[in-house]
Amino acid sequence: MSNRRTINIGLCGLGTVGQGVWKHFGRLRAELEARLGARIVIRRVAVRSLSKARAVKVPRAKLTTDALALATDPGIDIVCELMGGTEAARAVTLRALRLGKVVVSANKALICAHGAEIFAAARRHGGHFLFEASVAGGIPLIKAIREGLVANRFARIYGILNGTCNYILTQMEDLDAPYASVLEEAKRLGYAEAQESLDVEGWDTAHKASILAWLAHGVWVRPEQMIVEGIERITPADFKNAASLGYGIKLLGIITRDFETDEISVRVHPTLLPEGSVLARVSGVFNAISVSGDVVGTTVYIGRGAGQDATASAVISDITDAVALLLHGKGAHFMGEELPPASRGARMAPPERIRGRYYVRLTVADRPGVLARVATIMARNRMSIASVIQNPSERPGSASLVLTTHESDERSVRAALRSLCALGSVREEPLLLRIGDLED
Amino acid sequence: MSNRRTINIGLCGLGTVGQGVWKHFGRLRAELEARLGARIVIRRVAVRSLSKARAVKVPRAKLTTDALALATDPGIDIVCELMGGTEAARAVTLRALRLGKVVVSANKALICAHGAEIFAAARRHGGHFLFEASVAGGIPLIKAIREGLVANRFARIYGILNGTCNYILTQMEDLDAPYASVLEEAKRLGYAEAQESLDVEGWDTAHKASILAWLAHGVWVRPEQMIVEGIERITPADFKNAASLGYGIKLLGIITRDFETDEISVRVHPTLLPEGSVLARVSGVFNAISVSGDVVGTTVYIGRGAGQDATASAVISDITDAVALLLHGKGAHFMGEELPPASRGARMAPPERIRGRYYVRLTVADRPGVLARVATIMARNRMSIASVIQNPSERPGSASLVLTTHESDERSVRAALRSLCALGSVREEPLLLRIGDLED
Q: Are both B6-137+308-338 and B141-304 of the same fold?
């Protein structure tokens, strides 16, 4: 077997995911080599610090601090970019693609910010860019959408794309505990980053929604063009109110396309989901994505969305596809990248036109006439109230007023919220949640 | 574009699935051709009757009654075998593979009966056999297991693999209706075949479990080697008993592997699933499969398992992979078929050694001492009783006695059932259900 071809991998980044790839690849290498019929070698590993102690033992001779040199090394066929960040990662990725290499990436922020440039570089220079690990970690979702469901157009894709937020929301609901204490505990357990804002403000979910929108519709949507709202202002009382209405609360990324107008919308916000729905039952750090195709109907995918092992599983799947590509030719996997799904004139729907039902929580002065004033403002904005829940507030002299509405649109609800904010009897910024009418 | 290569497809079978493929392929053809860079033509269609009226209009010149001629036609590159049955389908499949063609199949019974021969023929003669539509219809499950989760070994794969049974069970539970009347209604609505036995006795699920066992472990397990039990003897009372214990009832195919002993077990039986579990919530004609990998953890896939459109979606995905293969080379998709997952000494565990907890429903004479006799028999067989529910039976003078047990094994429970049957006070064959301790 000494005349077998050797495929060489360069690993950029030896953090949590990089160490996972090193560990599992080492364990699986003999089997993968047997199945693929080639030697597969992690030839070099780029790290920020040569001296840092790590759980995995990488021979010192393989280590370098120069990731860019690794991208340009003619002896390396596949570059695994697991550094994170967008500056150095972009440089490494583009350099490798321009040399016709295969790049495997778990970097959703990079793809979201520079996807158009990256895929153009791959096409122009014969490189390939694989990114299964970038969305929904261990779930082979990108393969499902791009290959398994190739016969479908996607009217709706939505899901729980951030395990940290889902863990926090699940704990708040199960323990009746406030956001701040659950977040603190999540940090202690390693389920939330020290800098949590990317997760809890919805931006990580937005990055992933952007990638899914491109996969499904061939359009790059930047987070700035979306409605992006986080989970920080949700309280245990909101879970109780939602439950009394028959709902749970999940942070969702939602991508819809109206094939009559050819408008797409991409948004991220906490959403009330019917308690009986499958996604409402998905708890803890799991991700879950519902994909509705016009031929296949609705399919749902559930699994761990992050973490060392789940992400390594996806990266190794991409490495395997990359080795098969280098040995045997392109196959079906690469159809999507050559001719990304035609956008066929799809354009972003103006966010203010998105329609839906709403949940509005107000903290109001507990005195006569307030409900009448609130109801008048809703009516003036053509918002039809579906239900009202009034409870004592934690604030002395205040009441919590929860309204749900019949279908309306973002423009109307925002105008209503602005008017409500201006009322002297409204004592806090209103909390707006959307009601997800997403089931089939 | 006139010098583009043309890929020719032969469609064998124009029943429900064949018509779905014709319809959707026609609609998608221009887009698929643009993305794949080739002309793709359904060149001939083999049918049993040339004169039969069909919902789709296939030009008469394309029709033939000779499926085998279509398999040997040198002008045809891809043979879609959608005839069903195992005799003619086997002949067509083997003939096409031996000529190095690609065969796309939705025929789980064929694969289960002749998979070893089919894959051997493909390997020997350079043909390829794709079968995404054979298990879980529209869900790209085979691609997920074979490619997306390539880094994993699978300790457990289980799921709802037959939509007809799941529809019947869901209706029985929701409407508190007996099996026979729900089955009749399901036939009227087209959710069950006129000849329902393949579905309700568990054999269709067993075919699919056999394919999944091969994908995951490289071993062909025939239904005769499995425990296969159906849903015909379940009553509305069983749903109530299960609910009172916190369970729903689903017909599951279950494939497990113990990596210490390297024994696998494959079985099909109605199973009590905890009400809060995701699979317990999957209702109607949907399929749902839980796949536990040693790296990725548990992933779950849900979607329509059968029907014209969902199956056509999977067949067209395979056709796309086949076209890409013929144009661009093998790619990763075909890794699995060249070197099927090494069985590494895996062997079937003797079914009688399978361990689990049990639900036993007895119809007994309603007189003193019966419970004592039943309990004595259970104890003699080292079955430890966990709970007892006694209710009046529909039979006059009888009582329904439901026992659940702590963990035991198939040998013990079968021996206990034999002894119970021999008791004069036991008036019907006992109903045995398994309790699924399948969650992570």
A: no
Q: What is the ipTM of this complex?
A: 0.94
| Nearest alpha carbon to residue B75 among B8, B2, B11, B13 | B8
Crossing angle between the packed helical segments A16-36 and A308-328, to the nearest 10 degrees: 40
Q: Which residues of A48-81 are buried (b: 16+ CB within 10 A; e: fewer)?
A: eeeeeeeeeebeeebbbeebeebbbbeebbbbbb
Lowest mean pLDDT among A52-66, A338-352, B12-26: A338-352
Write out pLDDT tens, residues B240-254: 999 999 999 999 999
Helix H or strand E segment including A171? helix A163-175
A208 is catalytic: yes
Strand partners, A44: A10
Amino acid A328: pLDDT: 78
Q: How far is CA B140 from the centre of its chain?
A: 14
Tens of pLDDT along B421-437?
999 999 999 999 999 98
Can you spell out the DSSP letters for B200-247? HTSHHHHHHHHHHHHHHHS----GGGSEE--STT--HHHHHHHHHTTE
Q: CATH code for B6-137+308-338?
A: 3.40.50.720
State whether B147 and A321 contact (CB < 8 Å): yes
CATH 3.40.50.970 fits A144-304, yes or no: no
Amino acid at B361: R
Say which CATH architecture domain B141-304 belongs to: 2-Layer Sandwich (3.30)
pLDDT tens profile B70-125: 999 999 999 999 999 999 999 999 999 999 999 999 999 999 999 999 999 998 99
SS (H, E, C) A109-166: HHHHHHHHHHHHHHHHHCCEEECHHHCCCCCCHHHHHHHHCCCCCEEEEEEECCHHHH
Q: How far is CA A333 from CA A8, A158, B335, in A?
A: 21, 23, 13
CA atoms of A287 and A166, how far apart (whole Å): 8
Q: What is the mean pLDDT of residues B354-373?
A: 94
Give the pLDDT mean for B175-182: 97
Name the residue facing B140 among A149, A295, A330 (closest C-beta).
Answer: A149
Quote the crossing angle between the two packed helices A370-380 and A410-422, to the nearest 10°. Answer: 150
Q: With b meaning 16 or more CB within 10 Å and e meaning fewer, what string describes A309-342? A: bbbbbbbbbbbbbbbbbbbbbbbbbbbbbeebbe
Minimal CA separation from B124 to chain A, in Å: 17
**CA–CA separation, A120 and A164 (whole Å):** 32
CB contact under 8 A, B342 and A300: no
Nearest to A322 by CA among A12, A30, A40, A18: A40
User: For residue B140, which residues of chain A lie inside 8 Å, CB to CB?
Assistant: 143-144, 147-149, 299
Q: How far apart are CA B435 and CA B440, in angstroms?
A: 15
DSSP code string of A65-111: S-HHHHHH-TT--EEEE---SSHHHHHHHHHHHHTT-EEEE--HHHH
Length of chain A: 440
B352-435: in CATH 3.40.50.2300: no
Q: Which of B281, B303, B338 sits opposite A299 (nearest CB)?
A: B303
CB contact under 8 A, B301 and A304: no
Domain boundaries, chain B: 6-137+308-338, 141-304, 352-435
Catalytic residue from among A208, A240, A250, A330: A208
Name the CATH superfamily housing domain A351-435.
ACT domain (3.30.70.260)
Positions of E strands within A305-384: 347-348, 355-365
DSSP letter string, B136-150: STTS-HHHIIIIITT
Give, in degrees to the nearest 5, the angle at Cα B78 between B77 and B83: 140
Residue B40 CA to residue A175 CA, distance in Å, equals 57
Tokens for A265?
A: 């919308």
Residue with tokens 């699919």: B208
Are residues B321 and A332 in contact, defined by beta-carbon separation less than 8 angstroms?
yes
